[in-house]
Amino acid sequence: MLTLNINGEKRTVEASPDTPLLYVLRNELNVMTPKFGCGMAQCGACSVLLGNDEIRACITPISALGNKEVTTVDGLPARWAKQRNLTANKATRNLHPVQEAWIEQQVPQCGICQFGMMIKVTELLEKNPAPTDADIKAALTTSGTSPHLCRCGSYAAILDGAHHAAKLMAQAPAKAGAK
Ligand code: FES
Ligand code: FES
User: Fold this and answer.
1) Cα–Cα distances in Å, from 12 out to 62, 70, 123?
2) From its phi and psi, is residue 81 left (phi > 0), alpha (psi between -120 and 50) or beta?
3) Deepest of 79, 115, 128, 152, by most Cβ within 10 A of its Cβ?
4) Confidence (pTM)
5) Is residue 114 within 6 Å of ligand 2 at its C-beta?
6) pLDDT in tens, 18-44
7) CA angle 112, 113, 117 (to 5 degrees)
8) 96 with 76: CB under 8 angstroms?
């Protein structure tokens, strides 16, 4: 048994240490936003954040996670709230700006790739709050083990979503005091 840090919660799992994180998330912990696309680190549908870095959950054994926090799209609101010192109440009501941007720009088509896209864009914006088109394209194509693939071809909408998310993040109060 291993204890993992998933979206800020300690979760003890039965899976053997060599089990890929994606299977543990979906089959044991009922965390369904990371998707199974290729199972070979070739599409990005399964992406999650490990600490501050995107990883492919389909090829990452849970023994490799250590004590670092895994963040899925489910955990983005709480991650944002923590970064902004929002209250727990606000944390349960507010979406992460990347999620808001994806809704406002109506980015997804079928949606299966979009959880990984949002994770990758979150990783980018935490490191580069005002990315150019080229920065976003590079993040989605050359910064990971493979490009993030969208079979629906929503790449233009993803670019718009990333820029809109950057704008929403910039408009947010710097660090609100907890109320
Ligand atoms: S399912 Fe993991 S990269 Fe495709
Ligand atoms: S929205 Fe369908 S695969 Fe990307």
Assistant:
1) 11, 14, 26
2) alpha
3) 115
4) 0.94
5) yes
6) 999 999 999 999 999 999 999 999 999
7) 140
8) yes
